Amino acid sequence: MAKKTAALPEGYLARGIPGDYAGDYALPSEVHEKFAQLVAAGAQRASAIRQAHPKGDQLATPIQSARNVYEKEHVKRRIRWLREQKARTFASEEGIFEGFIAATERTMEAIAELVELCRLEGLAREATAARGALGSLAGRTFTHRDNMTKADEQGRFESPKAKASLKEILG
Q1: What pLDDT, in 10s, does the model give residues 68-116?
Q2: pTM of full prediction above 0.85
Q3: Is the dihedral of CA 94, 99, 104, 105 positive or negative?
Q4: What is the 3-state secondary structure (H, E, C) of the chain?
């Protein structure tokens, strides 16, 4: 028998979420909020629902559960707003890529920690794979960072020139 749900008041996306919700405040559902934060930060949806749901490890269908949460309009709006906020932090007064560079450096530090953890746990193959990923990421990032910083200093990321400049730099 299908579970009955109370009808929402007209103009509401969900309980406590008006139709004009822009995503600019936390969702009332802790599961939805944590899911939105994780997805906005780059987590895969199935992984995000496992982490967000109190019984995430026991979900029989995490992919379907994640899809059900993601398809809710208020969750999509929250994810979009969180991503926009993250993008705004990248565009600092110091330069458009300073936030990107800092985030990339944090990622590389996390991979380095993963390499060390694998090594300590006797996972040599996994440590080698993580070390290779770190080396590849570092090489590409620093090569492109220098090129993008020069382009930013020249004002090439302003207006319509930006896309052409990015294509030229990233080739």
Answers
A1: 999 999 999 999 888 877 766 655 545 555 666 666 677 777 777 777 8
A2: no
A3: positive
A4: CCCCCCCCCCCEEECCEECCCCCCCCCCCHHHHHHHHHHHCCCCHHHHHHHHCCCHHHCCCHHHHHHHHHCCHHHHHHHHHHHHHHHHHHCECCECCHHHHHHHHHHHHHHHHHHHHHHHCCCHHHHHHHHHHHHHHHHHHHHHHHHHHHHHHCCCCCCCHHHHHHHHHHC
